[in-house]
Amino acid sequence: MGNVKQSILAGIFSILTIGILTFLTYKTDFGVFLLASFGSSMVLLYGYPESPFAQPKNVFFGHLITAIVGLIVLHFVPLPLFIIVPLAVGFGVGLMILFNVTHPPAGGNPIIVIIGSVSFDYLLSPVITGSIIIIISAIIINRFVLKKSYPNKK
């Protein structure tokens, strides 16, 4: 029965967190807070918060590094789309692993950035602000509601 409870709670808290980002994006003038890969982040943050991939530094820097890579490749590598997308994903994944900030959902960010042809403003909103909001939500929910030790103490 523990798995059923875990799945229900992960679903509810994902709805809550993505709901906050959606509300801020569509019902306020504060900017864009949604990033498609944040949906995948919910799986780790609420389903498997003990995972090293779900830790705040991994969430924040994983999303940041891969978005930066996507932006650099998009704006400074004058090659066709079918070449720059895999290059950006590969470099992003490699850098997350190199810097020990692997967050698997962030592996999709270069695709989102390149296909969306976004500007460097995208780093602030949604990448940085959205990452901070999902991390704060995960800390509050995991620590104070679910009574889990999050982030992991190492």
Structure commentary:
This protein has one domain (2-145). It contains six helices and no strands. It has helices at 2-27, 36-47, 56-76, 81-98, 109-116, 124-145. The protein is globular.
Poorly predicted tracts of residues: none
Shape, principal axes of CA atoms: globular
* Total strand segments: 0
Biggest pleated-sheet summary: none
Total helical segments: 6
Task: Provide the number of structural domains.
Answer: 1
Please report which band the strand proportion falls in: under 5%, 5-15%, 15-25%, 25-35%, 35-45% or over 45%.
Answer: under 5%
C-alpha Rg, in Å?
16 Å
Separation, N- and C-terminal Cα atoms: 30 Å
Mean pLDDT: 96
Provide the helix percentage: 55-70%
Order of helices and strands: HHHHHH
Structural class: mainly alpha
List keywords for this structure.
154 residues; mainly alpha; 6 helices; 69% helix; globular
Describe the protein's topology.
Elements: H1 2-27, H2 36-47, H3 56-76, H4 81-98, H5 109-116, H6 124-145
Helix pairs in contact: 1-2, 1-6, 2-6, 3-4, 3-5, 3-6, 4-5
Q: Concise description?
A:
The protein is mostly helical and 154 residues long. The chain has helices spanning 2-27, 36-47, 56-76, 81-98, 109-116, 124-145.
